[in-house]
Amino acid sequence: MITIYRLPQKTGVLIFDMDLTLYTNQEYARFQIDRILQEAAAFKGKTVEALREDIAACRKEWAASHNGKGTSLGNVLAAMGISLDENIRWREAFLEPGDFLGEDPKLRETLSVLGADYALALVTNNPVLVARKTLRALGVEELFPVIIGMDTCGVSKPHRAPYLRAAELLGADPSKCVSIGDRYEIDIELPLELGMGGVLVEGVEDVYRLPPLLKNPPPARESEFSRIL
Ligand SMILES: [Mg+2]
Fold this sequence. Notes:
By secondary structure, this protein is α/β, with parallel strands linked by helices. It folds into 2 domains: 3-25 and 102-228, Rossmann fold (3-Layer(aba) Sandwich); 27-98. 50% of the residues lie in helices and 12% in strands. It has helices at residues 26-44, 48-65, 73-79, 84-94, 105-117, 128-138, 150-153, 160-169, 184-193, 204-208, 210-215, and strands at residues 3-6, 13-16, 119-123, 146-148, 177-181, 197-200, 227-228. It has a 7-stranded mixed β-sheet with strand order 4-3-2-5-6-1-7, with helices on both faces. The site of magnesium ion has 7 residues, from loops.
């Protein structure tokens, strides 16, 4: 399912999330979390189970002090005293996307079509090294002229810095950008606040459907904030 929250009058830049947006692979998504939690538990001298309980409590506290909103694992771990630098180091050392992902010719074709009409950027909560390895495994690395990772701005989404950096690097006003990702609170909500467009997808199968939808978006009904397709 694709949910279009807002599209600019004239879109210039598409800012893609990476994990679970440019590929659909729950096994790899789970592996990433489990591997980082394994390192985080060892770092804290706890069992993974105990750490998971701490994370659940921390997420609850975060929501209570942030209007019920959620946040990324990186931000939760940072709130628990595990720096983004540590998180970045573990991700660089232990994540090998090529073990899970393979070339996706349909994604390559889709991004090539989109790249002819829009400038493409990637904004991810993985470090740039892991982003490059992921894009290489999928066979689309050279299609993203701008790649912004957790280590580019030193923050984890949701945060305004990586989105504004992407717009700036492509010389576009934020109002001409559209953020596309699989998690509303991480990928869509804040870009909308920055005046960008936002499109929520459920995986790469939805990304394949984007070119005609972005070119000729269905009209929004006045009473609806979003268009669900
Ligand atoms: Mg994602």
